[in-house]
Task: inverse folding
């Protein structure tokens, strides 16, 4: 009886609880419908509760009682079906999960019948209440209409309206409170007077008192007590007047409301007006965009790839002048060329991003869009050219080996170049010069001492440039004078002025008075650059065709004048082209164009004056009619051989080395069928005429890469577009297929041998246990893509890029077609070469397969991720192969390998590379085919290794954590913070997952103890720690005289494990607040070692924060922590290697910027893996150097993706091929040079922007080569030392100061070594010619011309000063001797020991004491140009040697300040770095 009673007693409680649960369930399942449906009726019921009768209340109560009954019934059902009730808890069964069900259907199923009925009734009641209110309002409006008909409006009451400020408030009060009642009362009183006829009988006595009558009326009609007594027409108008008058009373509600209404109305009107203007502007902009759509080359369906337009927007948003970087985040650039835009989609897509642009910004965007349209034409043209070269590669690669011989390819290019006409050679690049040949192929005397300007990459570039400068100055002077002297009076004034004014002042005044001169400096430079390019083409043409007819000469002069007076002279780029601003102005016949086309070929756009010319435009849409059609005025690619050569068919195969003998190989290389066919022997003029007559489309559409655009500033007019101005949809008569096949060549055409061999191994059942490991190895690959440069052969990408660099951007496609046909006839491989190529392919595949198998076997063996194997364990298992029959043969392999020194306990540890080398040596000692034997041995070892599933899972997880540490270093942007973070994550995750521990860890690095040397030569500084211990550990220092075991780990080079720290007695606790009784736990200290096994720090792990009192580290944990230290060391040195390379690059850039002036900016990029696992690599913009030599280094370098570089793909072309790229973008020329790893792949890129110059002068071009060679040599040395491939080589004394300081002077040390090697190759005769410079001005004959005498004197001073400076370095005592002022005695120091002393001189040695000030006075008086013009290799060597010695001496005196790490601190977003200027050579 008690159990049921208790149930009944608890029933209300249970019901309430169930109701609450039911409400929660309903709220979660149908939250939105419940809230919306319940809120509306409840609010309406509250608002109209006063009008609801009591019956409605009773009805609601009855419904609520009915609801409670239904709720009880439903909860009982739920209790019976969905819950299991026990004594202590209630468990609810999970509901069924339904996917892909319409939400409305789901909600209807969840709703119960009572709820539907309730909602239906409430909704009906709410609608009834609402209908009542509506009916009441309608009745009121009808009554008002009837009253208005009954009592017409009396407009006489409008006279009360007066807004005079003095009586305004009183009048408003009276009209509101008194007059509406008083006026009818007076009216009634007057009517009563009239009725009693009191007007006429004034003397009659009566009881009628008008005052009393009026008072009685007012009392009877008091508005506070009588409501809705009816209003007359007069009162009705008075009420309106009162309401209108209240508005004007200040500080009243009506006044404030009226002001608000007025303000709202005004804002609404303004908003509507603005919207109308916006709509008009948007329509005009859309119309302008639609007109601009025709500027683009479209695919066969008339569409543009979406990714191209996204790149246009991305480049515009990235411009720092517009501050639109935030818009870049909204751009989700497509990954392929698939999505396309038609005309309307093009307009709408762009409009969605530029809707908020100001007019000026939109104008600039239109210019940018027009420019990108032209650039896109060039991209398509380049793609066509690259497709030709790709088909050529596949045709020449008859053996399908995937590469072509480098020396044979260069020899063919040299033959093609030699047989070309001089006009065509002015467009091509010399294949005998860098970058076609490598620095190792150039002899040192030629590289450092050759000053022959004829060896430039462009033929006669310096000579033509000098003539251009001379002609420009003459033409500029004559043009200015002809413009100024328009009348005889002006001529007379000019003659008088000329007689009394110096020439310099005349030129300055003329420049100021020129009426049409553009004022800005940039525009002047652009015009000058354009003129230079025009004259360059004119001079080359005259040199080539000296027999031109007078008509041709006059035509060239006419075109030159047209360009000179045209508004659209566009800026110069390497493709030297000309565009005209107006179609049909000064146009000549087609035949005349063919005759003089070469004289006007290829002048680039000049956009410097766009901003000034915009002020004279009126409409946004005017740009289309002002864009003239452009014809590509370039020479065709036909070759005119100057000589017929007899050519053999075989290539000499004997080469002592790849680079040193390559030039001799190319000179001796011979081919068949390389002569030009007779039908190709035509003059350049005939070729041009044939092009113009055969392909008339070329006259309309030939693309140019740079152009002048005429755009308006305002949006007032719309000008109809001239159909003749529309661009052709063809490029040199060829239509675009709609695809850019070369956009993704790095992924489609680079043959990845590793992936192919991995797929073959996946299909093999012999190595099933290694498949998962091989997949992980492939997924953890560092950087995917990119080709290694090997100096012997070219793959497809490298071959295509080499030919593209050779042809250049100026030459038309016909030149590429001619070169292709020439290659097809000339490239012939012998049978031996084909067999050799196939053998090389087989060897490479075998090598990759071996490496994959052995690496996978190593990782399976090293199941704890320690990074090493015990040699004894490996031998023990190997000797069981074939039951020990091959044991003796295997022992022979140890004679050919040098193992690392044994660790304490006689344990020889092998890394992965050492293990692979050892197994391959063992296999080489066994009989049989090495590949088959190796696979058999690997299969035997794989099956002999027994690993449990737990060990395999643990190994997989640990490999992933170790990979993340290395990946953090590769994607950190040269920062150690991500490396520290991932290292501690790996430690803590492994401790929690595989050790059930809570650990703390910190990393300390060794530093030189300079402040307190008495406490030890070195100290350990804690540089990183886990978060909990950071306040106690970070930046703390441990000295040798302090308690601790870390220095024992440093000295012994092995880990030390303390199981219980409370019993050890020599453990130092950083956290002093911990009680001794709580100091329980284990401590593990592991050494951090570099590639040479030198300890550079300690990583410590402890369990002091673990709640368990005893929790020691087990062996597999210790081995994994050793693996963490190994990977951390690799990542640490990876980051520092990049930092040292940046330091070297900064030094080299500073040296180059001080002796060159035509380099605008230098940008340094590093390659990093992509953000996704299978994505393409990316570039990091590490630093930018301006023309002043100031380098800006980014703290968080911006990332550059390939898909955002359609218009700037030269960076990825460089990294894909590891070759030098010469490119032109946006009117600026770039020399893009890769920084290579020791394997030949690119690790970074140096982008040299030379502005609008076609190329650097030969002197600057050679200095650039010197800088690049030294920087690349420094990279090889840094990477080799860090990886352990080469030993550190300390040449100078300053290199022992520290690694950072060594990186700061490595550039100068390598250059010093190069110069010393070059000096050693000199003979005594080279110095004799210098010692003959004994010129004395006092005794010189007077018959020599003044200029000649000055030149001889300057040369003599140069020789004497350079030699004296060098002598003072080696013999500083000469300064104090009496022989110092006597040249005859000083030159005696230039003896047979002179070069030996120079090569043995260490400028950073402590015992060296020289007078730097005196030596600097001798050297710095002579500029780099002066030394170059002198043209003597000995002086060139000594000049650079003396400057480098000065620089090193100055740096050795201030190593701490002048040589600093180039990276910014944590608090800076960037930092500026610059080398000292005093020690470097000057420009002039």
Result:
């Amino acid at each position: 009886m008690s159990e049921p009673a208790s149930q009944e007693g608890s029933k209300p409680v249970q019901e309430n609880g169930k109701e609450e649960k039911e409400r929660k369930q309903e709220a979660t399942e149908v939250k939105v419908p419940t809230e919306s449906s319940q809120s509306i009726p409840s609010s309406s019921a509250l608002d109209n509760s006063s009008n609801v009768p009591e019956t409605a209340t009773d009805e609601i109560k009855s419904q609520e009682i009915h609801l409670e009954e239904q709720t009880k019934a439903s909860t009982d059902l739920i209790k019976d079906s969905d819950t299991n009730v026990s004594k202590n808890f209630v468990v609810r069964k999970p509901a069924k999960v339904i996917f892909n069900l319409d939400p409305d259907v789901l909600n209807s199923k969840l709703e119960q019948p009572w709820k539907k009925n309730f909602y239906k009734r409430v909704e009906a009641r709410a609608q009834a209440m609402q209908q009542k209110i509506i009916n009441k309002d309608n009745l009121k409006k009808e009554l008002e209409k009837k009253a208005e008909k009954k009592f017409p409006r009396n407009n006489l009451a409008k006279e009360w309206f007066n807004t005079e400020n003095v009586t305004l408030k009183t009048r408003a009060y009276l009209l509101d409170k008194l007059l509406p009642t008083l006026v009818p009362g007076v009216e009634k009183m007057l009517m009563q007077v009239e009725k009693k006829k009191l007007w006429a009988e004034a003397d009659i006595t009566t009881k009628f008192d008008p005052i009393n009558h009026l008072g009685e009326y007012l009392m009877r009609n008091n508005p506070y007590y009588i409501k809705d007594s009816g209003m007359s027409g007069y009162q009705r108008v008075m009420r309106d007047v009162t309401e209108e008058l209240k508005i004007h009373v200040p500080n009243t509600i009506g006044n404030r409301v009226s002001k608000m209404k007025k303000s709202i109305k005004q804002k609404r009107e303004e908003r509507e007006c603005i919207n109308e203007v916006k709509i008009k502007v948007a329509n005009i902009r859309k119309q302008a965009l639609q007109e601009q759509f025709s500027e683009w080359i479209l695919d066969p369906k008339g569409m543009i790839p979406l990714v191209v337009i996204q790149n246009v927007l991305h480049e515009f948003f990235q411009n720092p002048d517009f501050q639109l970087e935030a818009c870049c985040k909204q751009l989700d650039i497509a990954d392929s060329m698939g999505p396309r835009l038609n005309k309307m989609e093009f307009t709408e897509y762009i409009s969605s991003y530029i809707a908020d642009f100001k007019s000026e910004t939109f104008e600039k965007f239109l210019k940018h869009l027009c420019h990108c349209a032209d650039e896109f034409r060039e991209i398509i043209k380049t793609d066509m050219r690259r497709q030709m070269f790709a088909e050529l590669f596949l045709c020449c690669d008859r053996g399908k080996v995937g590469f072509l011989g480098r020396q044979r390819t260069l020899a063919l290019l040299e033959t093609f170049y030699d047989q070309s006409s001089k006009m065509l050679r002015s467009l091509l690049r010399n294949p005998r010069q860098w970058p076609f040949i490598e620095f190792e192929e150039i002899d040192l005397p030629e590289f450092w001492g050759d000053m022959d300007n004829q060896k430039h990459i462009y033929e006669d570039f310096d000579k033509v440039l000098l003539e251009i400068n001379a002609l420009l100055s003459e033409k500029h002077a004559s043009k200015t004078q002809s413009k100024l002297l328009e009348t005889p009076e002006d001529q007379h004034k000019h003659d008088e002025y000329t007689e009394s004014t110096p020439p310099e002042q005349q030129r300055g005044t003329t420049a100021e008075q020129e009426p049409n001169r553009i004022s800005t400096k940039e525009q002047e430079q652009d015009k000058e650059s354009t003129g230079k390019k025009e004259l360059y083409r004119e001079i080359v043409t005259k040199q080539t065709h000296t027999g031109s007819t007078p008509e041709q000469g006059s035509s060239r002069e006419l075109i030159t004048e047209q360009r000179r007076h045209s508004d659209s002279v566009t800026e110069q780029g390497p493709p030297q082209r000309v565009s005209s601003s107006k179609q049909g102005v000064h146009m000549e016949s087609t035949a005349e164009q063919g005759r003089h086309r070469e004289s006007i070929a290829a002048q680039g756009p000049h956009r410097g004056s766009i901003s000034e010319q915009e002020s004279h435009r009126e409409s946004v849409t005017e740009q289309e009619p002002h864009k003239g059609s452009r014809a590509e005025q370039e020479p065709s690619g036909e070759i005119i051989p100057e000589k017929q050569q007899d050519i053999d068919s075989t290539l000499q195969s004997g080469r002592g080395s790849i680079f040193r003998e390559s030039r001799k190989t190319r000179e001796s290389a011979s081919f068949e069928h390389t002569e030009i066919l007779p039908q190709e022997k035509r003059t350049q003029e005939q070729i041009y005429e044939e092009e113009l007559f055969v392909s008339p489309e070329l006259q309309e559409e030939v693309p140019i890469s740079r152009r002048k655009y005429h755009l308006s500033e305002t949006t007032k007019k719309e000008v109809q577009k001239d159909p003749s101005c529309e661009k052709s949809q063809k490029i040199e008569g060829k239509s675009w297929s709609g695809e850019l096949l070369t956009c993704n060549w790095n992924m489609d055409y680079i043959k990845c041998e590793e992936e192919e061999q991995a797929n073959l191994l996946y299909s093999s059942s012999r190595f099933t246990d290694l498949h998962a490991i091989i997949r992980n190895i492939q997924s953890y690959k560092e950087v995917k893509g990119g080709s290694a440069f090997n100096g012997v052969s070219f793959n497809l990408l490298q071959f295509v890029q080499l030919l593209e660099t050779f042809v250049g951007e100026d030459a038309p496609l016909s030149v590429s077609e001619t070169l292709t046909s020439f290659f097809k006839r000339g490239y012939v491989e012998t049978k031996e070469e084909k067999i050799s190529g196939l053998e090389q392919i087989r060897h490479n595949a075998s090598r990759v397969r071996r490496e994959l198998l052995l690496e996978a076997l190593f990782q399976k063996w090293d199941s704890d991720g320690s990074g090493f194997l015990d040699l004894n364990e490996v031998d023990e298992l190997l000797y069981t192969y074939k039951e020990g029959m091959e044991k003796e043969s295997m022992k022979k392999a140890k004679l050919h390998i040098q193992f690392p020194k044994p660790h304490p306990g006689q344990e020889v540890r092998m890394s992965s590379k050492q293990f692979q080398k050892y197994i391959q040596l063992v296999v080489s000692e066994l009989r049989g085919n090495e590949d088959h034997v190796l696979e058999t041995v690997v299969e035997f070892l794989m099956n002999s290794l027994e690993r449990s599933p737990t060990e395999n899972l643990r190994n997989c997880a640990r490999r992933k954590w170790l990979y993340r540490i290395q990946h953090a270093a590769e994607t950190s942007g040269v920062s150690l913070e991500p490396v520290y973070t991932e290292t501690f994550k790996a430690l803590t995750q492994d401790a929690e997952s595989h050790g059930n521990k809570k650990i703390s860890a910190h990393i300390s690095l060794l530093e030189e103890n300079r402040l307190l040397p008495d406490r030890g030569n070195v100290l350990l500084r804690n540089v990183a720690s886990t978060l909990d211990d950071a306040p106690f550990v970070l930046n703390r220092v441990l000295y040798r005289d302090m308690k601790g075991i870390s220095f024992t780990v440093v000295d012994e080079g092995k880990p030390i494990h303390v199981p219980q720290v409370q019993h050890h007695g020599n453990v130092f606790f950083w956290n002093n607040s911990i009680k001794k009784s709580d100091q329980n736990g284990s401590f593990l200290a592991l050494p951090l070692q570099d590639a040479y096994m030198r300890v550079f720090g300690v990583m410590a792990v402890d369990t002091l924060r673990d709640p368990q009192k005893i929790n020691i580290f087990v062996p597999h944990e210790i081995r994994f922590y050793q693996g963490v230290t190994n990977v951390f060391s690799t990542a640490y040195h990876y980051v520092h290697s990049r930092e040292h390379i940046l330091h070297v690059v900064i030094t080299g850039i500073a040296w180059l910027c001080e002796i060159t002036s035509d380099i605008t900016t230098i940008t340094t990029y590093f390659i990093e893996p992509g953000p996704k696992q299978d994505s393409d690599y990316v570039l990091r913009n590490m630093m930018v150097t301006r023309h002043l030599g100031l380098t800006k280094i980014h703290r968080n370098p911006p990332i550059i993706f390939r898909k955002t570089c359609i218009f700037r793909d030269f960076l990825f072309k460089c990294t894909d091929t590891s070759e030098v790229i010469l490119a032109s973008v946006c009117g600026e020329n770039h020399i893009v040079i890769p920084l290579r790893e020791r394997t030949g792949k690119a690790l970074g890129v140096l982008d040299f922007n030379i502005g609008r110059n076609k190329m650097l002068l030969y002197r600057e071009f050679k200095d650039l080569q010197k800088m690049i060679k030294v920087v690349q040599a420094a990279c090889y040395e840094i990477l080799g030392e860090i990886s352990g491939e080469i030993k550190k080589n300390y040449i100078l004394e300053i290199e022992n100061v520290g690694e950072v300081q060594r990186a700061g002077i490595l550039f100068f040390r390598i250059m010093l070594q190069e110069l010393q090697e070059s000096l050693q190759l000199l003979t005594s005769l080279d110095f004799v010619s210098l010692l003959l410079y004994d010129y004395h001005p006092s005794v010189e004959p007077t018959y020599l011309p003044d200029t000649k005498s000055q030149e001889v004197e300057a040369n003599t001073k140069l020789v004497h000063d350079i030699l004296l400076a060098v002598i003072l370095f080696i013999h500083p005592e000469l300064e104090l001797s009496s022989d110092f002022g006597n040249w005859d005695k000083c030159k005696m120091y230039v003896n047979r020991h002179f070069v030996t002393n120079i090569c043995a001189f260490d400028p950073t040695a402590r015992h060296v004491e020289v007078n730097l000030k005196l030596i600097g006075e001798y050297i710095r008086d002579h500029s780099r140009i002066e030394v170059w013009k002198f043209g003597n290799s000995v002086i060139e060597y000594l000049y650079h040697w003396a400057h480098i010695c000065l620089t090193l001496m100055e740096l050795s005196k201030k190593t701490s300040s002048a040589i600093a790490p180039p990276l910014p601190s944590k608090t800076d977003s960037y930092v500026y770095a610059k080398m000292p200027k005093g020690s470097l050579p000057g420009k002039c």
Q: What stands out?
A: Confidence is low (pLDDT under 50) at residues 1-102, 491-535, 537-661, 667-725. The two ends are 115 Å apart (CA to CA). The first helix runs from residue 2 to 9. The chain is about 55% helix and 5% strand.
